[in-house]
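Collaboration report, partner site 2.

Our partner group contributed sequences for two proteins of shared interest, and the home lab folded both. The records are reproduced in the order in which they were received, starting with the first partner submission.
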Amino acid sequence: MAAKSEVLFQRQIYDEALDLCRKCSRIHPKDLDIIKRTAAIYYQTEKYDRAIKECDHMARLAPERQDAGLLKAMCYEKKEDWYHAAQVLKKIKDSPRAAAMLRKARGKYTLDYKMMDWVSPWFRDERREYYSVAGKASKSAMISANGKVQFQGDFTKLGQRSTGKSLYPANTGNLWCFVDGAGKRRLVPGEKYEFLGPQNGNLALVKQGGFFGYVDSHFNKANFGYEEAYNYCNGRALVQKHGLYLMVEEHGKVVKQCSFHSIRSDGYGNAVRYGVMIAEKDGKQQLYNSNATLLNDFSADELRFPEETHGLMAFRQGDRWGYVSRYGQVIIAPAFEDARSFSQGYAAVKLNGKWGYIGTDGKLLIPCSFDDAQAVSPKGTSWVKNGAGYQLLKLSIYPK
């Protein structure tokens, strides 16, 4: 019967082949060839859920066999369930076919047409939740990594969440203040600032009269008069005074004098992201840790902050971009017109004037077809732009 069922299967007479397979399985319930043929018949007749159950049965009997996983992943592909397809394929090692199927799954996405004029990078608060600020005309919104609008309003600028407090620096008509998680004003200073950062360690970064400094929760000046200054991180902040960069504690006490000539910020007032600082010395940018200690000897014409802990960072030498590790090892040689740092195994790159996404092997996962593309969040979302504005790209290998 087994041989006859195979002949019928090859001749695509699936009903009779399935009937013989069922009879064989009652006699030999652990015959892997019969189970596999049954699964293949269900696959060919588009009964994918039944095929998946047969694949699971085969996997329980012979965990080492890859064909069960491959067929199961093919069923999920047909169902366009890229999340479960990817979960199956990740478990199949040393299989070129599985690797090719996984690459295909990783390149699938949908678009949520937010139509924003501008967006900011994702930031992580102390609760390890991720947000981005996006805006259209004079309105801004705080949007979570899964695309949910936390609050929105007539803000020209919004900053990241204060440490331990649901307070966000916001600019409304050239007036900086703090708003809560519903977008309502909660703390309004009695004087105008040119910039206001989040409250970190009870101190908030401000700019006034062309100088930087810090204010407490009542907007009393704690220390002031810096040419440059950045948000506090773990009780310390980087400032510049009389042309020198200094590391100071919360009361302004200098704990270290730095030797670099300029520093990069992430746009939210942070000089440190994921424990990494980027500073320039003698015309080259280098990587430092949060205590302003040089991480390695690697230098580049330009470096970009990491988007996750130990994530590969984009760097530029000449007019091309590549990727380097935190330890100064070049992982992907410069080959791109522009690039963002890696997150979640994806990095946005620019080729022939358009943006797409590569994997850590440097090969394209999503073709370069966007006018702009930002980093991928831990929720599998990213901002991409076409002629209509910014949309939220949602990778299909992430759960809905």
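Second partner submission, folded after the first:
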Amino acid sequence: MDSIAVRSYRCFGGEQTARLAPITLLVGENSTGKSSLMAMIRALWDAVYADRAPDFKEEPYDLGSFDDILHDTGGRGARARSFVASFEVGAASSRSGSRSKPYLAEVEFGPHQAAPIPVRRRVSRDGYWLEQDLSQTGFGGFRCGTPQGEWRSQASEGQRAFASSGTEALPSLDSALWRLRWATDQKSPAVSRVETSPGSPEFTSQIVEEIRQQLGRFPGTRLRRSRSNDQARPFVSAPTRSRPRRTYDPTRTAPDAEGDYVPTHLAWLSLHEPDVWKNLKYRLEEFGSAAGLFDEIRVRRLGRTASDPFQLQVRKFDKKRKGPIHSLADMGYGVSQILPLTAELLRDDSPQMLLVQQPEVHLHPSAQAALGTLLCEVAADGRSGRRLIVETHSDFIIDRVRMSVRDQVGGLRPENVSIVYFERNGHDVVIHNLRVDEKGSLRDAPPGYRQFFLKELQRSIDL
């Protein structure tokens, strides 16, 4: 995703757009929609890439019912009946400097038994578009268009509403494109007659082929063919992560927002993939040392098999000798809080998109700054192609990212960084997209940005 836009969603009344980059920092006061935007990123991924209805109560983003999510103006005016979100993807620059036309995916959400469900999905590119009616089972009805005209097909008789079907599955874009092809076959009973808008040419197989050529390369189709949806789904990190234990029993290794899976994952690697563990261990220790948290981490097995208990141990070095070894439970809480996130960041098989909430929790400012450097190093790694969306209140992380651009850490460029500032405006929130230049200086910042910090600094001068 290169950008995301929302409308009539939570605290966003009019349409607001956030630019996404390899590293995106979401900043602003509490309750200004930062977590809501992250929840919508995952919801759009589910609705467009995974072809399933999002769960807006899935941890760690419990947004409530449809009425809780729909924007409330706080007045007596008419309220919207649905909320809409969209994203752009695929606007890559060529060697000549020109940019290819991006794809735009849009999803409209309506209510069903107090829950929000997708009722419409649209994919477009360069004047060609295909819109699916998701309020119907099967393929439902569709609308499509080219620069030359528009066409529409109603759902076949006997199809029930998606909302009452009891299924989370949505028809894929691939199936909709095939549906277009079938629509030109007059013998096909699967679709009713295609209606042609006034002034549009007759709907033919040539028009279908043009739409297929423009939309058939939508990145979501390649994603589904290359990786399973569960593997590719964005990783989500909650602000409060797992509690440290002196002894762990092996559990599941499927990722979870709190990071409870990480100790078992590390223990499994140490036993079954020692080379992978050696590399990950080195990188974890490199960060731990830079952050002043630990200099060594190891897995101590209390048996010979993968089902036996184990301990995660860390140790700090001083200038003359190694310090004593400790279990995680005996170290400061910051170590156990940051370990799940750093382990996921440094995994070679981590999903391409990571949604991270307040990674600075329980970290000393020096450790927060070191984490900012690590985020930049991961985002600057062109081989991984990762996108890090980080909600933070830490000036130390923000400033370290700016310094990393100035110092070109890992080849990080200004366009690789997006700082998205959320500002209250009455009952609404306005999104400002800030830029970082080659010197690490902020551009396009509104007057209200960091105003509180400047006032506090002025007050502290007299201390």
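Feedback sent to the partner group on the second submission included the following. The longest strand covers residues 115-125. Confidence is low (pLDDT under 50) at residues 157-167.
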